[in-house]
Amino acid sequence: TDPTLMALFLSDFAKMLLVFCIIGLFPTAFAARVADKIYQEIQGDMACFKRFNGTHEVGCTSAFGGNVGVLYIPEDIEDIKWADEKGPHSPYIFGLTPSLFTSEVLMILKDSKNVNGIVLFNPDNQTYPEQDSPVSTCPSHEYGIYNESSSSEYKDYCTADAKESWNPVGTSLLYKSFNFPIFLIQDEESVNAITKCYNTYNRDSLGNYLDWPLCSLQLQSNMYGATNSEVCIRRTNSFAIVGINYCGPIHDYNIHGSLNEMNGELEDSSVIVVAARADAASMFDNISPGADSAVTGVVTLLAVAKALSKYKDDFKDANKNVLFILFEGETWDYLGSASMTYDMSESSFPFKFNPNDLSQVSNFNFSHIDYFIELSQLGIQDANDESQIYLYTDPISNTNTNIQEINDKIRKAMEDAGGMFNVNVKSVTDDKTTLPYPLPPASLQTFLKYFNISGAVLSDHSFQYKNKFYQSYLDNYKNVKFISSINNTNSSDDLHKHLYRIASTVSQSVYTMATQKSDKIDVNAVDENLISDLLLCFLRNVNCTLFREHVGQLLEQYIASYKYEYFQPRPAKMYSSVQGGEDILTNITLYLLGDFLGEEVLENEHECWSNSTSAVQMFFLPKMGENGTCIKSTPRLHSANSPAFRIPGYNFSSGLYPTWTESVWDTTKVRLFLKPSPVEEVGLVVGGCLFVILTVVLAYWADARAATLFVSSPAPTQC
């Protein structure tokens, strides 16, 4: 081979490759620049998305490339009906305010052929509707102890047709399926950009509707999953080898920790359980504040844990212990408590007993429970200087004399303790029979399905929820009247004082019943400032000092690799997602509980560790103190993974265990642009096609006549 020819060939090949690269990259770069000029990006991270259970799918999705429609912002329901039935520029994307985002309106739009999507405007200064609860009137009723398959006389007390319902404003929109995308837009600049575009191009100052070009939106939120959980999981497993994922089970981690370490064999009725739910939901991604639904219970439990940690020796002397539990996934048919009770029934909570591991945490089951106190919704109060809470016990359990006796002691202890801290504790009874009224939706119901135990649920409501925004994006700091800035609680705030009184009441009653002492706990045992700080972190700003200090060493490494900055001035997301989806907050809460129950030890970051099965856990907090702090404590995580996904051959339509899954999606976005008339669009396409055809014809004609058109010049004469 001639080296010179090879060099020439390689040189020509390199030039051709460079030309092809330039030709390939230029249209892409040019197209991106054109797209930037045509479209304006709008906040698009709060999309309604698909979820599935054992029988059907719920939520929203868009077409693969997104849904496009002319923007229409109605003023009332008559406007909506006009656009749906007679609108001349369909398909539309409706821009709704919260007052129009109702079940009635969404049912009108749900089956319309003229609707391609909805955007819901909710800037911080937006006027609230009177109510908004997208879940059912009887939350998780089918998975409780009073469901319709129960033999209990209470099985019909809360059904779709019953007069009595816990959540009378519930619309069940969370469980509807929409074949178009729905987005929540809170960013004020985005809302202003959309409304300005609409008022400029779609409607003049006199209210007249204008003609093309019209302000339009593109909504993209294509969901990969479909049908139901069983089908979706089967598809995911079938394509796992090539890395295609369609959906995943809803999953998080329960948190549990004991006042004193639990090691060795436990005595029956030796452990008092104090529990709360730690999750909430809404129709939209990235927003689930759960202020009353979850946060008030979580904050109260953490405050009680820290208060009782000052009296560990008194509990030890009385041969009593307290197990604090925060359940995750309870929104989804008691996922967290269903997982824990299943493991207890299998003698594997927290772990299977290992006789060779002397440091292993005790195996815990139902017989070890003395009684169960659940802290439910606690944030809505009527008075500022006195707190009112309601106490529920199970009427079925109360038919057992021993259970009723302990429940009466719980009631008496709560009432007495409430008198010390200005809290009025009222037992909820049936007006006709004076018997205890059935339990509201609560994790305690899951435990009672397995074992008859004493227990009470504390809540801010009697018979029906006071919370008109249960499981809504509007269940935020305003709903519980938390008065604060983004960084500080206002001195006039009453919520933290209210929860201080309740936490003190619970702490005192648990202490009195466990130790049989009449002593009053220290009035400062419950830290009012801590409650204030916790409320600020959960409800207003996760970028708070308290949360940042309680980031463990492994969690710090995980956050560093996270897809976006977690610590931003925004409320905490209380949603339970798929595994690895929303568990940063869970881990921060774990370290908070560990700090409140534990003690500091002089170990550096390399020495501060423990086996996961040990009764005592060690974890290092790098941001606490000058050089970090090692904490010795008892809390640990427990996988809130439904037994439905663990039992081989489980029947997904049986209704025995939760079967909720969440769809996978690639990206969600909202784009604003001006849409020309259909005639103009067709004209541009036809014109472009004709131009291409004409170019090809001219090129062919020129090539056929090249000899005539392009005459070669004679070679120059040599001198």
UniProtKB/TrEMBL annotation:
Residue ranges crossing the lipid bilayer per the database entry: 682-702
Domain of life: Eukaryota
Membrane topology: Single-pass type I membrane protein
GO biological process, one term: Notch signaling pathway
All copies of domain Nicastrin small lobe, residue ranges: 47-224
GO cellular component assignments: plasma membrane
Keywords of the record: Glycoprotein, Membrane, Notch signaling pathway, Signal, Transmembrane, Transmembrane helix
Location in the cell: Membrane
Classification via InterPro entries: Ncstrn_small, Nicastrin
Pfam families documented for this protein: Ncstrn_small, Nicastrin
Family according to the record: Belongs to the nicastrin family.
Name under which the protein is recorded: Nicastrin
Organism, as annotated: Hirondellea gigas
